[in-house]
């Protein structure tokens, strides 16, 4: 007998299959800071147009760390930290579906 159509299972399957595309995810968050470099002759000295500095902020062994990102890698890192957010969202949605299914199954015991 064919099982009744369950939209939650369809959604869970789609979420699971989408996780592979997020395998390149990076932890932490992407941070952009504006700062002056300290050189008195630089255009940033008046404090109006500052230098952009990009960092990835992560917990390493429970301690917060920030790593500088070279400009040429900014887009890639931004994309990969966004993948982690999407991974977390998918994991949360899968957990919610499973909880709903568990509670329904428990009721029918
Ligand atoms: Zn400067």
Task: Describe what you observe in this structure.
- The protein is an alpha+beta fold and 109 residues long.
- Helix content is 43%, strand content 21%.
- It is built from 2 helices and 3 strands, in the order αβββα.
- Strands 1-2-3 form a 3-stranded antiparallel β-sheet, covered by helices on one side.
- The mean pLDDT is 93.
- Zinc ion binds next to loops.
- The site of zinc ion has 6 residues, from loops.
Kindly state the mean pLDDT as a whole number? 93
Percent of residues in helices comes to 40-55%
Ligand types: zinc ion
Task: Report, as a whole number of angstroms, the end-to-end distance.
Answer: 21 Å
What is the overall silhouette?
elongated
**DSSP summary, beta strand count:** 3
Largest sheet: 3 strands, antiparallel
The helix/strand order is HEEEH
Strand order of the largest sheet: 1-2-3
Provide the β-strand percentage band. 15-25%
Structural class: alpha+beta
Name the poorly predicted regions. Answer: none
Total number of helical segments? 2
Rounded radius of gyration (Å): 22 Å
The figure for the number of domains is 1
Key features?
109 residues, alpha+beta, three-stranded antiparallel β-sheet, 3 strands, 43% helix, elongated, binds zinc ion
Short description:
With 109 residues, this protein is an alpha+beta fold. It has helices at residues 7-19, 74-107; strands at 29-35, 51-60, 63-68. The longest helix is centred in the C-terminal third of the chain and has 34 residues, at 74-107.
